[in-house]
Write a structure and sequence with these properties.
By secondary structure, the protein is α+β, with helices and mostly antiparallel strands. It folds into two domains: about 200 residues, Bira Bifunctional Protein, Domain 2 (BirA Bifunctional Protein, domain 2), CATH 3.30.930; about 45 residues, Roll (SH3 type barrels). The protein has seven helices and twelve strands. Strands 1-2-3-7-6-5-4 form a seven-stranded mixed beta sheet. The longest helix is centred in the C-terminal third of the chain and has 20 residues.
Length: about 260
């Protein structure tokens, strides 16, 4: 069990943008909702809202995110990136890279990425990242980028998750200080975000961590069809090219991709 203390975090934080300002809450319906409302009011980028529990959190494609009290770290950021709308996924890349580097720096645990937005430890899901963009005409107005990270979550009561998800404390075999984790996450993410704002693509660094490339996968399309192939490459906009088993290729952007075993 843990709580996030705003004063403690602010005293240690060395960012110039992300977490400026910072709002810490014990429990909230959704950090994404709070930041989205702030964005619509015209607040500047950098706002970070963090909570130890979400009661109505959502993942990709509107899925619910199981969030017991004091088990996770839930962070949403208000960003106004200088990006064309088709590169909104780059904000996901900066946040996943920042989180992966923070965990490796603090705990020495290797972190991989499952396309398009999951962090993996030991092949199991540690965190998910979600970016929601809003537009004025064709111009990207803002992005609400969020991460839900299993810090101390006990999955023993959730058998449907126990084989596929993991908490940081379970992987480490020790307690985790959430304040140190949050500070490192914000600092590493800011480095990648500011580099992106300066014109540096995060794609190469992100792709180097992908657990998905070169492996046989099944893609669950929106119309219910399944396609099978090998994850071939990531395109500049973050889409995944699947080299199909029956020839040709298909680009996927917002679909479920699962690894499969070859017989």
């Amino acid at each position: 069990m843990f709580t996030l203390t705003q004063t403690t975090i602010e005293e240690r934080l060395r960012t110039s943008l992300l977490g400026r300002p910072l709002v810490c809450l014990k429990s909230v319906e959704s950090t994404q909702t709070i930041v989205r409302e702030a964005a619509r009011r015209g607040e500047a980028e950098g706002l970070a809202v963090v909570a130890g529990q979400q009661t109505a959190g959502k993942g990709r494609a509107g899925r619910s995110w199981w969030s017991p009290p004091s088990g996770g770290l839930y962070l949403s950021l208000l960003l106004r990136p200088n990006l064309p709308g088709d590169l909104t996924s780059w904000t996901v890349m900066t946040l996943t890279l920042g989180a992966a580097e923070a965990i490796e720096q603090l705990y020495g645990l290797p972190v991989a990425i499952k396309w398009p937005n999951d962090l993996l430890i030991q092949g199991r899901k540690l965190a998910g990242v979600l970016a929601e963009g809003a537009f004025i005409g064709s111009r990207l107005d803002y992005v609400v980028a969020g991460i839900g990270l299993n810090v101390a979550t006990d999955f023993s009561s959730q058998p449907e998750l126990a084989d596929t998800a993991i908490s940081l404390e379970a992987a480490l075999g020790a307690a985790v200080d959430p304040a140190s984790l949050l500070v490192a996450l914000l600092e590493h993410s800011e480095r990648h975000y500011l580099a992106m704002q300066a014109g540096v693509s995060p794609l190469a660094a992100w792709q180097a961590r992908l657990d998905t490339l070169g492996r046989p996968v099944t893609v669950h399309l929106a119309d219910g069809r399944l396609v099978h192939g090998v994850a071939g490459a990531v395109l500049p906009d973050g889409a995944l090219r699947i080299d199909l088993d029956d020839g040709g290729s298909q680009e996927v952007r917002a679909h479920d991709v699962t690894l499969r075993h070859q017989s």
